[in-house]
Design a protein that fits this description.
2 copies of one chain form a homodimer. By secondary structure, chain A is an alpha+beta fold. Chain A is 33% helix and 21% strand.
């Protein structure tokens, strides 16, 4: 599957929704369709519109972006539609982006994938919404994506091992996350956007949260979920570490969550139904979130393993499996990422899941 | 100035633009109007619309947000308009947000501040754009904002000193930024979104960029710009550190940039014109970016100190001043943040500016 094939498939979704032009500005879709890694860490760019892809039948795909957001070596089948974003002159980038988008869209009906895309469609009929359809289109990964996911998962493995060591060294929550992040960035060779839960003790019962200056006390568990974006592709991972001697209830819960993860890995295969895997994994545990979800150009993709989900798994899907158990005094979650193979699945994660 | 005053002032801008309802979803405006600190580090939320404030005359201000984005202790004069974002059920948060927004807006003309706000306005006449007007409204800081800015600047001061030490310890670019970040987060007691340039040697001639695994060699300069968001308010700072013995050209450039910063600080006062300060600071130097800019709920606010800018400085403005010099072999920038006082300015930054 090449970028051109992906662009074609995405356009088909727009046409099926009754539109003539597809406008994508969700960073995940922009990455999937063009390879561009969109900067996200400091929030919406005040000087420019979010980079967007515009696709219509018989026309070159356009990548609408401020000059500073377009790398020189972008190796994609797109025609750049660049404008001045940041400058010492008047800051008119966002208005200019809207004008350029209007020039491409003309009077045609547009399909959009996000708020940022919707904002580029300033005239004409109400745009069609293809956000969910694009999530489904991205669900089965090609070899290029799988390679990128393997790299991202390898980065999370390094982060998990470093976090485990930092906990053993007596770090507080902030120090543990900082150590894990530094190790992951050293491995990747660059800064990484990072979704993370790093909470210990009773606070982890709320399923997650950001690190504080709390230094885990003996008997507490440290829940560590690391989801870095590596070259535009997200990894995901979770482990839970005991400090000192964990209480018997935590030990027992850990055994049950680990067994649940093993049940899930055993059950994932082409033809399996997402809701059924959710049910057999969740059995005997207590968590109110999903059992799993896809990852790739976004950190939350299809398939969703949730109660009642009727999605049938297909070869090439990549799924983060994360059963958990939350009690009044602790939170415990374990997460590995698997790839659906021809007759089962391959565990892509190598980080350890032991409590101690 | 209270939040209610800010909301009233913002509504006036919308009314002046011919609208009846103001819809703000820029994280900076949402923070300024309600105190809500919007999560930004992992990009657009796939489960919910960006938190938005809706204000109309004679009605309570509404804060439209997913339940998980609304803290329990939000102490603001707003009425929450909450919906389910993330769940194990169907993911319909963004659609639900649009419905709720439509219910408030009704058939009235809206004024918007961002792409995210524009996307919430799904019917009726073309919305008015008040983004630039709101930037101006935020330019003069009240005492509460000033206090928040002082805290953010104090965090940058810690980061700059730690970065200087990490360079002296022989760290590579990634290690230097990781050390600075960890020190800033330890000071703040929580994770911080971070805008940063951390580049050394010839690569710094391009004005900035992210850290790499490059270990600065003797004679190279390390350009370190740290802009963390602390409790919703941005700090900013820049220093440049020599490794070993800097070349004579770098030493001379450092002297000129430092003098330029001193000239700027000397000139900032109520009544001074932004473009004039830009000109007297830039004299004899070579940089193609602004001389300075406001900071606050966003990392780039009014006033902009750029060539020709006719903005008159007022007491209470807070300005990051950052003259620079870029040569083929190095980049050098120094940045302190000042507050415009009744008769001059107060330097809020304490980090050292020495090259060595």
């Amino acid at each position: 599957v090449s970028r051109a094939d992906r662009q074609g498939a995405a356009l088909e979704l727009a046409l099926a929704a009754g539109a003539e032009v597809l406008v994508c500005a969700d960073p995940a879709n922009v990455h999937w369709l063009t390879g561009l890694v969109v900067e996200i860490e400091t929030g919406p760019n005040p000087f420019a519109a979010a980079p967007a892809v515009l696709i219509a039948a018989g026309e070159p795909a356009r990548l609408l972006a401020a000059e500073e957001d377009l790398p020189e070596d972008l190796e994609v089948r797109v025609e750049p539609l660049a404008y001045t974003g940041f400058s010492t002159g008047p800051l008119s980038g966002i208005g200019r982006a809207r004008e350029l988008a209007a020039g491409v869209i003309g009077g045609r009906r547009a399909a959009v994938d996000s708020a940022a895309a919707r904002a580029l469609v300033t005239a004409g009929t109400k745009p069609a919404d293809v956000a969910a359809a694009l999530v489904e289109a991205r669900a089965v990964k090609d070899s290029e994506e799988l390679e990128a996911i393997r790299k991202a998962i390898a980065v999370t493995d390094v982060g998990q091992e470093r976090a485990r060591a930092a906990v053993a060294e007596g770090g507080d929550e902030l120090e543990v996350l900082a150590a894990a992040r530094a190790a992951m960035e050293a491995t990747a060779g660059e800064r990484l956007p990072l979704g993370a839960d790093l909470v210990s003790g009773p606070r982890a019962a709320a399923m997650g949260g950001g690190p504080s200056a709390h230094r885990p006390a003996p008997g507490e568990l440290v829940l560590c979920d690391l989801a870095p974006r590596v070259a535009g592709t997200w990894g995901d991972s979770c482990a839970t570490f005991a400090v000192g001697d964990p209480p018997a209830a935590a030990r027992a819960a850990h055994g049950r969550v680990r067994e649940a993860l093993e049940r899930a890995i055993e059950a994932v295969r082409p033809g399996a139904v997402a809701g059924a895997i959710d049910a057999l994994t969740r059995d005997g545990l207590d968590y109110s979130h999903h059992t799993g979800h896809g990852i790739g150009s976004s950190f939350y993709e299809s398939p969703r393993l949730v109660p009642g989900a009727d999605t049938t798994l297909r070869e090439g899907m990549v799924i983060a499996l994360e059963p958990a158990y939350y009690d009044a005094g602790f939170g415990l979650r374990l997460e590995h990422v698997v790839r659906v193979t021809a007759d089962g699945c391959e565990d892509l994660s190598t980080h350890r899941l032991e409590l101690e």
